[in-house]
Structures are given as C-alpha cells and as structure tokens.
Design goal:
Elements (H helix, E strand, L loop, with lengths): L2 H20 L4 H4 L10 H21 L13 H7 L7 H20 L3 H5 L7 H4 L12 H19 L17
C-alpha cells in the first residue's frame, strides 16, 4: 500500500464511520451548541465543508507547483455567511460526506513523488492545524495528514465517539 492509498483510506474510514453516526442526529440536536458560545454540530460540519472546499483546491494545485503557499479564509465569517446553523442537517451531512470521499480519492491518487517532495516555500505556519515553522521545509503529505487531524478534532467536538483522537504530527509547545 502506498502512502497516498493510506492517506485516502484513512480519510474514507473516518468519514464513512462518522457519517453513519451523524445521520442519526436530528435537526434539533444538530443546531444546539455543545457549550455556550461554541459552534453547534451543524456549524462544525459546515466549517468542515468549507475546510474540504478550500483544501480540495490546495491539494490539487500542489501537484503542479513547487510550493505550498495558499490563501486562507475567515472561518467564522464563512460559517455565519452560509447560515449553516439553519441548514437542513441531512443536507449538510450528505455534502460533507460526498466532498470528503472525493478528497479521499484525490489523496489516494496523488503521486508518491508529489506527496514526499520537500517544499521550502509554504505558509503552513499560518494555514495548518498543526503549523510548520516558515523556515522548515514540509510536504504535501504532511498537509494532507494535517487535514485529517483537523477533521478528527472537530468531529470529536461533536461527539468523542465520532473519531479517534488525531495523532499529533509535531510536538506542540507546552503552555
């Protein structure tokens, strides 16, 4: 099994398992924030749709350019602008599932040399869930694994049983 197959397979497994459980939630449960001042499950899944959308174009473009430098987006503004809190829950889950299964295919078909190529020009110090210092080279494989970790993190905010804890790729500073 190649690294690309492994990446795509992991995302596919996480999404398929979580989607089955998410579909059991009602619209009423999906719009209730888990904690005061935090996103509801519907807003979290909406944010993960936005993440999939942004990372889809990043992962595809990274096949054809030497660096990993991409535009960011204002996640809170995007979630509010798209009214995820009032969207039909089943529609959100279906969209999130389909988009991520497509991303799993993109990951699985990425050539190994493209995955592993060191990239010195990147902005994963600001884009990645687990940032890479700007002066350190990184890879598309790292960025894809970071995407899966971010997705697992947010699924666990909805329900810890939706995904196993994300494996840390980097040592985070202790605060």
């Amino acid at each position: 099994m190649t690294r690309a197959d492994d990446l795509g397979g992991e995302l596919r497994r996480v999404v398929t398992r979580a989607a089955e459980r998410l579909r059991r939630m009602t619209n009423e449960e999906a719009v209730q924030p888990r904690q005061p001042g935090k996103w509801s499950p519907a807003q979290i899944i909406g944010h993960l749709v936005d993440s999939a959308s942004n990372n889809h174009q990043r992962f595809v473009r990274a096949r054809f350019r030497p660096g990993l430098r991409f535009d960011g987006y204002e996640q809170d503004v995007w979630v509010d602008a798209q009214h995820y809190a009032s969207a039909p829950w089943s529609d959100l889950v279906d969209l999130w599932t389909a988009f991520n299964l497509h991303l799993a295919r993109v990951m699985a078909t990425t050539p190994e040399d493209v995955l592993r190529m060191p990239r010195r020009d990147h902005n994963l110090d600001v884009l990645a869930w687990e940032p890479v210092p700007a002066e350190e080279p990184t890879t598309l494989e790292y960025f894809m694994r970071d995407y899966v970790g971010h997705l697992k993190h947010h699924l666990r905010q909805i329900d810890p049983d939706l995904a196993e804890p994300p494996a840390s790729q980097r040592t985070r500073p202790q605060h």
